[in-house]
Design a protein that fits this description.
By secondary structure, chain A is mostly helical. Chain A is built from 16 helices and 2 strands. Chain A folds into 2 domains: 39 residues, no CATH class; 199 residues, Orthogonal Bundle (MetI-like fold), CATH 1.10.3720.10. In chain A, helix 5 packs across helix 16, helix 6 runs parallel beside helix 10 and helix 6 packs antiparallel against helix 12. Classes of the chains: A mainly alpha (319), B mainly alpha (291).
Chain lengths: 319, 291
């Protein structure tokens, strides 16, 4: 696999790579196929294996009969889910929490990026940026701990303050009205700094000549933000929003798995957590897989659609 | 005219830096409270909203207790194994795949990209993957936590895009000198890819350190649980019995113990990411935008 396999010396003494012609692919690129071998075996087992197992969505899965031996039941599992009382509630919670995070979180991330971009105090700005990224690297277990020490009725800061002011305590994490608010705000707390990165990068890409020209024309800083910065990052914002809409059915499984409890199922239970309980805790493998498959298919359609829109939009926006 | 402008500028800077100060305060305050609670002795726990501690009366008892507890030592060891072992597996699998797919002349490259893309776009959910892992008999084996996510498809494509940006001349020159592809990967490509290796490495490592769901899913043996699962059990009061026993001998409240364990669990990540920050800002953008 040395020189002779990769290179052919032509008459002029100039080396030329051999990559055309049938049968030579393996000789010229053998090393690369070798590198791909273990990863492809991994893909076959851990990425395509689940696709094969997904057939139990159409079966009455019995552990003893296995994936292949269990009897087919057609669309029965899907029917069970669609006609169950949970369907609309799960869909509403999933979409509501997801959209809430997007609609509230995105403008805040843009605002943070603008503040970072405009601040003229370098070291302070760098420090603020570093701190703002921090929560992104924390696990939802840690976040749950922080939330407990802030919100729980007996040890939470907010309740201590409320009680000191003569109010009464609220169990924010176990109250169905408060729970979605806690989910959305804690996600924003965790991810806003991280999401701001991409907007900040888009801002540094804006032609500085535009700002100089505006300054000469006497535009105020606010006018420069409104007329130069915001239009300059518009494409990026819209692209990100569209891509996020593509994964709208992912409402934050780890977050909710970690923080929810029976009292808040009515407003906090999402498709993923329901699938976990049905499948892993109640052994309804067929039903849980059907719901997961349903979510996967809708997700695929959404990602594909919004990707296309984003691509078309970016093209239209750029030319 | 000039004066008005600079006055304008002054107010503007106050507003912008004020926003940053507000964001910072909101970020730091909850974490500050966790820290203060972790060092507050039992009898003072109800004063000052847990935002201040008398500098003469703080205690590191909660840390001493948590750090010397046998379940911490087990969990910490498991977390280290999962993070470093998992990271090694991630890189061993992701780097060669990304490098091979970055070779533009590779016959079948389009098909291979497609093969990598399909599972990324279509996810059949939890149960089918669960059946794969349990079908291999990996329950109660740390490999069940490390192997299933060996290649993150997004990470792999980000890395591939980075490799594709490296001018081909570098690789061609080495090939002409008779270097093997493995040699080229290690001696030419990787030294030029430090930012992306640090970025992706950090993403993987953080993911392993923070992982609590797959350990809960696949590891029933309490001795195999990593740190986040131990923290979860402490927070949810699932095994506080052990800790309550401890409590009778000490000056430390359950609250301080919770706070200390939260702090210990997040500390390693807090210490690592700022050093890699400048790379991941660059690295994640390099691949991210072109996706």
């Amino acid at each position: 696999m040395g020189q002779s396999a990769m290179i052919q010396t032509s008459g002029t003494g100039k080396p030329r790579r051999l990559h055309r012609g049938p049968g030579r692919a393996l000789r010229t690129h053998g090393a690369f196929y070798l590198m791909l071998f273990i990863p492809l075996v991994y893909f076959a087992i851990f990425k395509y294996g689940p696709l094969v197992n997904a057939q139990i969505a159409f079966k009455d899965f019995m552990a003893l009969d296995g994936v292949w031996g269990s009897p087919w039941v057609g669309l029965k599992n899907f029917g069970t889910f669609f006609s169950s009382i949970y369907f609309w509630e799960l869909l509403r919670n999933t979409l509501g929490l997801s959209l809430g995070k997007l609609v509230l979180g995105l403008p805040l991330a843009v605002l943070l990026a603008i503040a970072l971009n405009e601040s003229s105090l370098r070291r302070w700005k760098h420090f603020a940026q570093t701190v703002a990224y921090l929560p992104h690297f924390l696990s939802w277990v840690v976040m749950y701990g922080v939330l407990l020490l802030l919100l729980s009725p007996d040890e939470g800061l907010l309740n201590e303050i409320a009680k000191a002011l003569g109010g009464k305590e609220t169990n924010f994490l176990q109250d169905p009205t408060w729970y979605p608010i806690v989910v959305i705000l804690s996600d924003i707390w965790k991810e806003t700094g991280w999401s701001a990165i991409i907007y900040l990068a888009a801002m540094t890409g804006i032609d500085t000549g535009l700002y100089e020209a505006a300054e000469v024309e006497g535009a105020t800083r606010v006018q420069r933000i409104v007329h130069i910065t915001l239009p300059g990052i518009r494409d990026v914002v819209i692209t990100i929003a569209l891509l996020r809409l593509g994964t709208i059915l992912d409402a934050g499984f780890h977050q909710i798995f970690m923080t929810y409890s029976v009292p808040v199922y009515s407003t906090g239970d999402i498709i993923d957590t329901w699938v976990y309980r049905q499948g892993i805790l109640d052994f309804q493998f067929g039903l849980a897989t059907a719901v997961g498959l349903f979510k996967g298919l809708i997700g695929l359609g959404l990602v594909w659609t919004f990707n296309r829109i984003a691509r078309r939009y970016a093209d239209a926006g750029l030319f | 005219m000039r004066k008005i402008k600079s006055g304008d500028e002054f107010v503007f800077q106050i507003v912008m830096n004020g926003i940053l100060a507000l964001v910072l305060a909101l970020m730091i305050l909850p974490l500050w409270r966790v820290f203060i609670l972790s060092v507050t002795p039992f009898k003072y726990i109800d004063s000052s909203f847990g935002l201040f501690v008398n500098p003469l009366r703080w205690t590191s008892e909660a840390y001493a207790q948590f750090l010397s507890h046998p379940s911490f030592l087990h969990a910490f060891r498991n977390s280290l194994i999962i993070m470093f072992g998992g990271l090694a597996i991630n890189l061993f699998m992701t780097v060669p795949m990304a490098y091979a797919l970055s070779v533009r002349s590779l016959p079948g490259r389009r098909a291979l990209n497609f093969v990598a893309m399909v599972p990324y776009l279509f996810n059949p959910g939890l149960i089918p993957s669960y059946l794969v892992v349990t079908g291999l008999g990996l329950q109660d084996n740390l490999l069940a936590v490390m192997i299933p996510g060996a290649i993150g498809v997004a990470n792999m494509f980000i890395m591939r895009n980075f490799f594709m940006e490296i001018p081909m001349d570098f690789m061609e020159a080495a090939r002409i000198d008779g270097a093997s592809e493995l040699f080229i990967l290690f001696r030419v490509v990787l030294p030029l890819s430090v930012p992306i290796m640090l970025t992706i490495g950090l993403f993987y490592a953080v993911g392993h350190w923070n992982e609590f769901f797959t350990p809960i899913l696949y590891l029933n043996d309490a001795n195999l649980q990593p740190l986040p699962v131990l923290l979860r059990n402490i927070l949810m009061g699932l095994n506080t019995n052990e800790y309550v026993e401890y409590d009778t001998f000490s000056q430390v409240s359950i609250q301080s113990l919770k706070a200390a364990s939260i702090f210990i669990t997040m500390l390693p990540m807090m210490m690592v990411y700022p050093w890699i920050q400048k790379h991941f800002v660059k690295g994640s953008l390099a691949g991210g935008i072109k996706g």
